Amino acid sequence: MVRPLNPEDVAPRLHENERKVLLALKGRDTATTQELSSATGLGQDAVEKACAWAETKGVVSFREEVSCSFDLTDEGRTYAEDGLPERRLRDMLVQGPMEISNLKESFPLLNIALVWIRRNDWATIRDGTIELTQKGLDLGEALVERVISNLSQSPLDDSQLDETCRNAASLLMRRGLVEKTDAVERWVDLTEFGRDVIPFVEAVPGRRVITQLTPELLQNGGWKGATFQRYDVNLPVPSVKPGKRHFLSQVIEYIRRFWVELGFKEMKGEHVELSFWNFDALFQPQDHPARDLADTFYMKTPYKGRLPDPEMVRRVKETHENGWTTGSTGWEYKWDPEVAARNCLRTHGTSMSVHQISKLTPDDLPAKFFSVGRVFRNETIDWNHLAEFYHTDGIVIGEGVTFRDMQGYLKAYLEGLGAKRFRFRPGYFPYTEMSMEAEVWIEERGEWMELFGAGMFRPEVVKPLIGVDVPVLAWGPGFERLVMLSYRIDRIRQLYSNDLGLLRKARLWME
To answer: Angle between the 143-153 and 74-82 helix axes, to the nearest 10 degrees?
Structure first.
């Protein structure tokens, strides 16, 4: 904070408690909050709050000193009086080796003692007999015993222990015999600027400082002769942390509302999809690289499902093999229904689009649909890729719809998501023609980033599904990258995290 240059201007802005703290620091320059509490008559919480506000005005500085101390637990105090179990067992063995079976009833702490007497190399066990080693015979006072003895007198500060005793105390902590307590002492230091302010605070001794003018003060005249605390609009205010939805959930809801307001209806589908809908209905050949295990998650159980309407399956089959009546030659291979029946996790939301088209009749046109849902791809996970992510897809179907219409829809969509600079470039996809790709400009990197693809479904996609060739605009944009840019997130996995710090700081998505 930039401190005011005029001490006289600061004095009237101080709260009454800040004034008390400042005057209590006069002549001593530094004090603990506990000392200031005694000097001012304020509670320690009130002192700390006053000091925190005074620090923002530059008149004091606030610091903390952390110290730690060690003390015995209840179990540790018992051992301080009776001796450690291993010491008591060692003293019993000074007379000579003993059978462990004979010790079990007479010595309840035998199991604990055996662990530590062997770990300390004070004794050995052979054939059920325990016998002291030379180290055990020569044993004087062990270091841990000395630490316990000292702690039995009074707690010890960390600074009172040397390195070996500190290590012994740590060992006793792991045994539950010693506990460590951290103490925080808060110190307040008067700054040079604070010294300059004190005379102006003293200039109005005993005068009441009013922080809020109330009707009662106006009625009884209590405001007369008092000093009004000035408002300081530069002071920081407490941050508000209201409850709110995860920002990614806000974005998804925004996208849903965006498309609904444009007259689209939402499509929904299952995560597990037939390869028929995910690939074949989109005129993607069965030997296409995207269908490999390297790119697609196939289900082990159930391995395959039931193909839809046989007549539609026949049309798709013939389209792949010879083009059917679409005017193309197809892919010219033998289409295998077993491959089409395999179950997989959907790799894009376009599978819902072809599902929806297959349900339409010519009387249902024109129509507009969208979907928002998770898709799955067998990708290498890195800062920019996950195996599971969200996709939003859309289709517009009807006579007269054009490529320019699609550009208009997607321009509005990108602007709605906050993209400032973007462009459409020619692209290629197996199931659309014409096709394009959308890219957004990344100012920080000085480069264009690809966002999604779009295009007009080929007749080989539309006609086998609905029986007629009608224009269909289709797009399938993801939105994680735009959200990452908007929230300045570096790694895509942060979009799905429950990091409270990130969620609290994240602004609300545009409403």
So the answer is: 110
* Mean of the per-residue pLDDT values of the chain: 87
Question: By the 8 A CB rule, do 47 and 37 touch?
Answer: yes
Q: Are 274 and 258 in contact (CB under 8 A)?
A: no
Q: Which helix (H) or strand (E) holds 123?
A: strand 123-126
Spatial separation of the C-alpha atoms in residues 464 and 459, rounded to whole Å? 8
Which distant-in-sequence residues (6+ apart) come within 8 Å of 139 by Cβ? 90, 122
d(CA 77, CA 148): 8
Q: What is each CA distance from 30 to 26, 34, 297, in whole angstroms?
A: 9, 12, 67
Domains of the chain: 248-505 (3.30.930.10)
Predicted structure pTM score: 0.59
**98-99, strands of its sheet edge to edge:** 98-99, 129-132, 123-126
Q: List beta partners, residue 342.
A: 304
Query: What phi and psi values does residue 263 have, to the nearest 5 degrees?
Result: 90, 15
Look up tokens 């023609």; give the residue: 433
Closest by CA position to 384, among listed 491, 246, 289: 491
Cα radius of gyration rounded to whole Å, the chain: 39
Q: Considering only CA atoms, which of 464, 251, 454, 223 is closest in space to residue 350? A: 454
pLDDT tens column, 295-334: 899 999 999 999 999 999 999 999 999 999 999 999 999 9
Segments of 161-304 assigned E as strands: 178-190, 209-210, 227-228, 265-266, 272-274
| Residues 312/464, Cβ–Cβ less than 8 Å | yes
Could you give the CA distance from residue 208 to residue 276 in angstroms, rounded to a whole number?
83
Distances (CA, A) of 378 to 70, 119, 224, 382: 54, 51, 77, 12
Joined together, the tokens standing for residue 217 give 């003060």
Max avg pLDDT among 173-187, 309-323, 435-449: 309-323
Backbone angles phi, psi at 128, to 5 degrees: 80, 5
Q: Work out the pLDDT band at 510, boundaries 50, 70, 90.
A: low
